[in-house]
Amino acid sequence: MLWYKSFREIRVVTLVGILGMAAACVLIVINQQAMRAHADTQMTYIAYIWKSVYNSIGRDIFVILCIILGSGGLLQERAHGTSGFTLALPVSRRRIIFTRAMIGYFGVLAIAAVPIAVVPFVSRYVGEQYPIGQNIGFFFLWAGCGAVFYGLTFLLAHWIEGDYLSVLIAVPSLMLYGALLNLPWLSQLRMLNIFDILNGEEMPYLNETQHLLVAPLPWLALGVMVAVSAVLITFAARRIEPLDF
Amino acid sequence: MLWYKAWRESRMRFLLSASTIAVMCLVYTILNTRLYPGVVHDHASVRSYTQYIHWTIFGGVVRALLQLSCLLLGLGGLQRDRKQNTLGFTLALPVSRASLVASRASLGFVQVLVLAAIPSLIVTVASRAVGQELPLDYALRFIPLWAAGGIFTFAISFIASVLLSSEYVSLAVAYLTYIFYLAAVRHPTFGRFHLHVADFMSGLFPHYLDRSTMLWTSTYAINPIVCFFAAALLLIAVSGLVTSRQDL
Question: Is the ipTM of this complex over 0.85?
Answer without folding.
Answer: yes
